[in-house]
Write a structure and sequence with these properties.
2 copies of one chain form a homodimer. The first copy, chain A, has a 7-stranded parallel sheet with strand order 4-3-5-2-6-7-8, sandwiched between helices. Chain A is built from 8 helices and 8 strands. The first copy, chain A, is α/β, with parallel strands linked by helices. In chain A, helix 2 crosses helix 8. Chains A and B meet through strand 1, helix 1, helix 3, strand 4 and helix 4 of A and strand 1, helix 1, helix 3, strand 4 and helix 4 of B.
């Protein structure tokens, strides 16, 4: 009976085209020594806070651009611009993810000849953004303590796509039922290479680990280019 | 300070292209007198059950095609094919929604010269599918009783995009805290034109209302074409 069913693969074509655009973007920024970092998280996990803190720590040493994709708002780009970096707001108007073509439009609006690092704040969502290669050289995700340590079980793809997992709001660990060791184990089963960095954007605890990780990524990226 | 922020509208271009493709698909099926119905719901709400029951009731009178977009599975298309209709499976591999181009590929695989009605089972998700015009002449959604009567508050866009709301699993009303009047009021505030049809695919209660609604849609669509 299954002879009557025609199967059409719609995903492959779309992803193949996106992959091509992502590879082009990655290559063009690599040639310029610019690291493109894709930052993903649920709404409210602290993406903008982390970006603002990162910019304040690194902007003296690195030239940073930020591409914001927060839904129907330009508040985030304003916050970041006040921290003294180039910022572009992609108005996605309710879209659930960014693809490489959208990120490329944001990159085009930045002066990439004078940048070391571009941080893309992806749409607040743990599902759809993980499906699409943005053209970034590395992806990071933020999980905040109030969201729970079970998220690797519910959103496994996101955890496999990231190189680093920032666990934000650790100042609230005492009032939530959140076990960092359990999280590390669950995330590690999905992605043994994942770097886990607990921190609090609010108190500053652990921020140094993130800043060092990111600065080292930029250094390695530029060394690769210069090699 | 906001002078430094460049705003890029990424949504409009994508939606404009999709809208164009949707309009083309709608027009081509209208010219043939084929009604394209987009069926949306959360996973488990009963999309496939409703389609199977619909096909069993209407297939003697109407020539029906079904486009299934269930994630990573061909079980649904097999079920529907057994009910004696043309079926196409779009393998979306985790995509969160269908757009008009994807639906058009499914439509192309059907013998539209010999159909009165095509039902598209959209991806199981109450958010993203509501954003994209599929090219359908009408959209319907299913909300099942166990999901709760608060869904219009959480997913308002979906309720505004549909012409009919099927409330499935009403045989379970007595064991869930679900108030049909409250649901009608909440949905009606978002969309005063919405037709609400409570039913149970399991017991058959209320199915006749849905079948009549759909048969009348097809009749009106074909009368419009012939006029």
């Amino acid at each position: 009976m299954t002879d009557d069913i025609r199967l059409i693969e719609v995903k492959e074509g779309i992803l193949a085209q996106n992959e091509q655009e992502a590879d082009q973007l990655r290559a063009s920024l690599r040639a310029k020594g610019v690291l493109l970092l894709n930052l993903m998280a649920s709404p409210g996990a602290g993406k903008t806070s982390l970006i603002v803190q990162t910019v304040q720590s690194l902007a003296p040493r690195l030239r940073i651009g930020v591409i914001e994709a927060d839904i129907d708002s330009s508040v985030d780009a304003e916050t970041v611009t006040r921290a003294g970096v180039q910022a572009v707001q992609l108005r996605t108007g309710g879209f659930c993810h960014l693809d490489a073509a959208m990120v490329a439009r944001g990159v085009e609006a930045l002066d990439t000849d004078n940048l070391d690092l571009i941080i893309v704040e992806n749409v607040g969502n743990l599902v759809c953004p993980a499906e699409f290669d943005t053209g970034a050289h590395a992806s990071a995700m933020i999980l905040s303590v109030p969201e729970g340590d079970d998220k690797p079980l519910k959103y496994p793809l996101m955890f496999t796509k990231c190189r680093v997992l920032v666990v934000n709001k650790i100042d609230a660990l005492s009032i939530f039922d959140f076990d960092l060791d359990v999280l590390r184990e669950r995330a590690g089963q999905l992605n043994p290479e994942l770097t886990v960095l607990p921190l609090s954007c609010k108190t500053g605890q652990g921020m140094q680990g993130w800043i060092q990780w990111l600065a080292e990524e930029v250094r390695a990226h530029q060394a690769y280019k210069d090699a």
